[in-house]
Design goal:
This protein is mainly β. 11% of the residues lie in helices and 48% in strands.
């Protein structure tokens, strides 16, 4: 099966970064399908990044019995995501996540609160570390005061955010409260206040955060008329251990494609009998292929390498063209981290 780009382990996007990442791969414009590929490479190349939960922003909220508070809205990736929040209150509260669209519907019609989907429900808590594995859709954190409303005629209300520094956020909160209470932006008077502190966290790198940056660079790109003669492309030398190369061949007849030490490849014109013994000593080869892309790995101690391409001996060579391409994953930034390891 033909592959159009180097086949590396794909990392599905999630809200949280992966915890074992050592090198960052970038594409050339228009060449590969994704802008960045984060790979788990050998720890011999660099120390693995260390991630942990770090303090983010916090909120202080005041609730009356039966009131709600709209917390942060999360935007997980296609595989979902996680959150981490410390919540303390003076009186029992209920915490849950709900789809952002559902909560927006409640703001338009407060009676829809009875049909809210409640994900990761935690009831009757006063001091908790709240975590949730969220589905792959925008999710809003909701906190509700567990006490029954003092006024049965009031369906629901929103609490007030205290000590918020952002004037825009403060104005938005006041406007949402007016949707529930039917009142304008007037000072809020609480009959039985319940103060809640919400401490958010972010998942971030804490150690070994600067990593070598690896970029795919073209080494060979040629479309040529086939002949029975061997094509040799030399000059490749790994600039770090475990360096990957990706080779792509497209030809009208079965081809031999291989990477050999340059000292051997340079002798093959004069001594073609050296080819088969040399192939026995390399794993970076493909026989009888017409359309294929494959990857190989080299260390610095492997020395200079050459790419060889030739039609298989039993094939009649037509007057048609073959296309050969090779990319190498070269270090372009923070390479001293690789050099120290090598």
């Amino acid at each position: 099966m033909q592959k159009d780009t180097p086949s590396f382990a794909r990392i599905a996007p999630r809200l949280l970064p992966q915890t074992k990442i050592t090198m960052k791969y970038q594409r050339l414009p228009g060449l590969f399908g994704s802008l960045f590929l984060l790979l788990s490479c050998s720890s011999a190349l660099a120390q693995d990044r260390v991630f942990s939960w770090l303090l983010a922003n916090d909120e202080r909220v005041r609730l009356d019995p039966g009131y709600y508070h709209t917390g942060r809205t999360y935007h997980p990736g296609s595989n979902g995501g996680n959150n981490h929040v410390d919540i303390k209150s003076q009186k029992p509260i209920t915490i849950f996540m709900t789809p952002e669209a559902d909560w927006n519907a409640v703001l338009q019609n407060p009676r829809a609160v009875a049909q809210l989907r409640q994900v990761c429900l935690r009831e009757h808590v006063v001091d908790t570390t709240y975590v949730c594995d969220m589905p792959a859709e925008p999710m809003t954190l909701i906190i509700r005061d567990d006490r029954a409303s003092l006024d049965p005629a009031v369906l629901a209300g929103l609490g007030a955010v205290l000590d918020r520094h952002d004037k825009t956020d403060r104005a938005v909160s006041t406007g949402i409260a007016a949707v529930f209470t039917g009142q304008g932006p007037v000072p809020r008077i609480f009959a039985s206040p319940n103060d809640v502190h919400i401490q958010y966290y972010r998942w971030d790198c804490v150690e070994f955060c600067i990593q070598p940056e690896i970029q795919w660079l073209t080494q060979v790109k040629e479309k040529y008329e086939l002949s029975s003669f061997l094509k040799v492309y030399g000059g490749f030398l790994a600039d770090h251990d475990n360096e990957q190369v990706s080779i792509k061949i497209k030809a009208p007849v079965p081809m031999l494609v291989a990477m050999l030490p340059s000292s051997v490849a340079n002798q093959l014109y004069a001594k073609p009998e050296l080819l088969e013994p040399a192939l026995e000593k390399t794993s970076c080869q493909q026989r009888a292929v017409q359309s294929l892309q494959f990857e190989c790995t080299f260390d610095m101690t492997d020395g200079p390498q050459s790419l060889i391409v030739v039609p298989e001996a039993s094939q009649k060579v037509p007057k048609k063209k073959a296309e050969i391409q090779m990319w190498a994953a070269r270090c372009v930034a923070n390479c001293n981290l690789l050099a120290s390891r090598n």
